[in-house]
Amino acid sequence: MQNPPPAAILSRPDRFDALKALAGRADPVHVDPIHGTVPPETKSVVSDSALLDERVFAEVEAVVKGGATLIVLGDTVESDPRLASGMVCRSLSELRPNTEWFMKLSAQAAPWSVRISQEIAVRGAFRDLEPQPDSNVLASVNVAYQDRPVIVSRSHGAGRVITCSFDPDAVIGSGELLRFVSRVAGGDVGYASPLGLAIVGYGPLGGMGLHHGLGATATDGLEFVAVCDSSADRLKAASERFPGVATYTELSELACDPDVSVVVIATPPSTHAELAETLLRAGKHVVCEKPMCFTPAQADRLIDVARSHGMALTVHQNRRWDQDFLAAKELVESGDLGELFNMETFVGGFDHPCRAWHSERSISGGAIYDWGAHYLDWTLLLMGDDPVRVSATGHKRVWHDVTNEDQVRVRLSWADGREAEFVHSDVAAVRRPKLYLQGTRGTLVGKYRPVVFESIEPGIGYRASEAHHAEAPAEMVFVSYDGPARLGEHRLALPSPKSFPFHANLADHLLLGEDLAVRPEAARNVVAVLDAAQRSLEGGGSVIELRDLLST
C-alpha cells in the first residue's frame, strides 16, 4: 500500500465533510473556490462549486495538465462555461426529475469497477451530457430506451477530467456510485495478480477455516494458498477441500512463505495476540478472528507493530454484515428512530453451553468475550460515541462442567444518560428479543425466529433439525409515534445478503487502497469494553470508568 496522493476539494466549507469520500484514496484539503490556492502537487481535485475564481481556475487547469484527475459534479459545468469549452463536456437536457434511476457502467469503466455492480440504482436529479469526440463514456442512464451519458472521462494534458452530472448528494447517497467515483478520483486501480491468503488454525469441518478458505476463493484479488494447523486431520481436510493449498504445522514455516501476503488467525482467542505480533513482524498483513485479543494493552501493541511495519491489521467482525443489524443501522442513521437512547441485545436460550473451547474461560476469555465481541461491537457502532461507564454481573447455577458463567449481563452508560445492555444466557427458557432499540421517535424490536430443516429418512421417517437461533436474521418491527394516540407498526425490509463482504473489503483495502470496514482502533475499543466488563464481573459488578480506556 502506498501513501495516498494529495487531493483538493473546491466547494463551500459546509460541504467539505460530505465530499471528502469523493477525493479518492487521499486525505483532502479544502480550497475556497474564490480565494483559495490549489497545491501544485495535487493529484485529484473534486469540485461542486458553481464558479471558480480566474486564478483558482488556472491553478486547477495547471495541476490537471500536469497529471491530476479533476472530478466535476452536478451543475458545475452549466455554471462555468470555461469548463464546458475547454476541459469537459456540456449538458444537453433540462434537469431530469429527482427520482430513482438505473445507471449502467460501460466497458471503459472497467479499471475502477472491480466488485461494483454494473448497474447501480441512484436517487437524484441529473442532466444528459454531450461528450466531446475524444471522450469516454463511463456510465449512462437509459431513458425512454436511449442511453444518456451521465459520467464522462476526457484527457486534458497529462491528466483527466471526469464529469458526473448527478449532484453530490445523489453520489454520496448511493454507496456503490460513491465508491466508483472515489476510485476514479484516486487514479487507475487495477491489479495484476491476487494476494496469497493463509489461515492459521483451520479448525473443525465447517468452522472458520473453511469459511475463510471459501471467502478467499470467491473473492477477486485473493487466493487461498496455505494453511497452518497442529492437526494432521485438519490439514488433510483443508487439502481435500482446497487442492493445491500448502500445509504447515509450524508458524515459522508459514511466516517464511513468500506466496503468503495476508494471514487469517482463526485459532482460539487466547493465542491471537502472540500469533498476530509474530506474523506482523514477519511482514504479513493480519486478520484476527474476534475478539482481537484480551486486553487494550495487547491491542495497542498490535496496532503499533502493524503501523511500524507498514502492515494492515483488522478483525473479522463478520456480524457487522448481518441483515438485521444492517436494517437497524439504516433506521438509526436515517433519523427515523430519532435519538437512540437505549439499546438492549440478547443471545442464548436454555441449553447446555458449547463443549468446545468457547466455554473455557482461560481460552475464550469468558462468556462476555464470546458473543459480546459481536453484540457490543454493534452497540458501540449504533450508539455513535464512547460510553463512560461499564458494569457486569453473572450467574453460575446450572452448568458446572464448563467454566463460563451460565448468564452474564453487561451494562453501559453514556455521559448524557443514554444506556445499553447485553445479556448472554444459557439458562433462559424464554428468549428475549435479539435487538430492542428505543429512540425518541419510536422503538425497534428484532425477534429471533427458528430455522428448521425437515427431512424424511428411510428407516427413521420424519426428522427435523434447527439451526442456531442467531444465524437467521431477526424479524424487525419498528413502531413509530405518529401523533396523539397513534402508533404505526412497520415491518422492516432486510437488505439482500452479500457474498463474503468482509473478504471483498479486505481485498479492496490491500489492492485498491480503500478504507478498512473494521479498523483496528474500533476493534481495540471493543476489546477495552470486554476487558472492563470482565473485570467488573470478577469484582462483583463494580462500576468501571471508561473515559481513559477508549481511544478516540
State the CATH architecture of the largest domain.
3-Layer(aba) Sandwich
Q: How many discrete structural domains?
A: 3
Task: Determine the strand fraction and express it as a percent band.
Answer: 25-35%
CATH class of the largest domain, named Alpha Beta
CATH superfamily of the largest domain: Class I glutamine amidotransferase (GATase) domain
Q: What share of the residues lie within helices?
A: 25-40%
Q: Describe it for me?
A:
- The chain is α/β, with parallel strands linked by helices.
- The protein has three domains: 7-186, Class I glutamine amidotransferase (GATase) domain (Rossmann fold), CATH 3.40.50; 195-317, NAD(P)-binding Rossmann-like Domain (Rossmann fold, 3-Layer(aba) Sandwich), CATH 3.40.50; 320-497, Dihydrodipicolinate Reductase, domain 2, CATH 3.30.360.10.
- The strands form five sheets. It has a nine-stranded mixed sheet with strand order 2-1-3-4-11-10-9-6-7. The chain has a nine-stranded mixed sheet with strand order 27-26-23-22-18-21-20-19-28. Strands 14-13-12-15-16-17 form a six-stranded parallel sheet, with helices on both faces.
- The longest helix has 19 residues, at 520-538.
- The radius of gyration is 26 Å and the shape is globular.
- The relative contact order is 0.10.
